[in-house]
Amino acid sequence: MREILSFISENREMIYFVVLSIFVGIEVIGGVPTVLHTPLMSGANAIHGVVIVGAIYVMLHVEMDNYLGLGLGFLAVLLGTLNVVGGFVVTDRMLEMFKKK
Q: What distance in Å separates the CA atoms of residue 1 and residue 15, rounded to the nearest whole number?
């Protein structure tokens, strides 16, 4: 418990930044009109592609005995891949609606 409290006190500014960016992101995404969701989805796919590459890069440079780092990297790659694939599926389904039958 003492280690957790020391980590929080040492990285207080970074934690504040992450929490603030979460709230700003929720407000920005919540204010997007329905018409702009497809371009926003394309941007999210590009961002998650960068997340996947970054997670793979971090996993390559983590020591083999650091199971927490490897587990978090694997989780980031898995969730980023699911997000990209899901985004492409949704975008493809939306584009199907505009095709002539």
A: 18
CA dihedral 25, 31, 33, 37 (to 10 degrees): 10
Structure tokens at 76: 């980031």
The token pair at 57 is: 């890069």
Per residue in 28-78, pLDDT tens? 777 767 666 666 666 777 778 888 888 888 889 889 898 888 898 899 899
The DSSP line for the chain is -HHHHHHHHHTHHHHHHHHHHHHHHHHHHHT--GGGHHHHHHHHHHHHHHHHHHHHHHHHTS-TT-HHHHHHHHHHHHHHHHHHHHHHHHHHHHHHTTS--
Burial letters 44-64, b for 16+ CB under 10 A, else e: bbeebeebbeebeeebeeeee
Q: Please give the Cα distance from 99 to 14 (Å, whole number).
A: 47
Contact status, residue 72 vs residue 29, Cβ threshold 8 Å:
no
